[in-house]
Amino acid sequence: QVQLVESGGGLVQAGGSLRLSCAASGRTLGCYVCGWFRQAPGKEREFVAAISSSGGSTRYADSVKGRFTISRDNAKNTVYLQMNSLKPEDTAVYYCADSGGFTSTPRSWGQGTQVTVSS
Q: In a 10 Å sphere around its CB, with 0-12 CB exposed, 13-18 middle and 19+ buried, how is residue 13 labelled?
């Protein structure tokens, strides 16, 4: 089972940017289909973005399309989430997850990193 560790969260003003990282260990490829999810206080965890093992295919939630970009560096076993034009409603704990496919239930989760966007 792969282990995932997120980093890069923090406090940023609305309109600002952050880049999250997810470092994978415990498997050669690291994360297979890697996804980012988020959970705001009092809300359910929701899908944000995902990327295929090769990096050639990506998926995004409508709420982040055009603002967030997911990418990966397989040589470093790391997945990134570049977040631009951040909004207060993006405030949440962001989790990295490993899945067998785009429609598969995640099988491993990171511990999460807090992103807070002030207005």
A: exposed
d(CA 7, CA 111): 10
Cα angle at 83 between 86 and 94, to 5 degrees? 95
User: Which amino acid makes up residue 112?
Assistant: G
Closest by CA to 116, choosing from 19, 11, 3, 40, is 11
Pick from 31, 59, 33, 56: which is nearest to 47 by CA? 59
The β-bridge partners of 21 are 7, 80
Tens digits of residue pLDDT in 8-60: 999 999 999 999 999 998 877 778 999 999 999 999 999 999 999 999 999 99
Q: What is the 3-state secondary structure (H, E, C) of 18-55?
A: EEEEEEEECCCCCCCEEEEEEECCCCCCEEEEEECCCC
Report DSSP state, residue 4. Answer: E
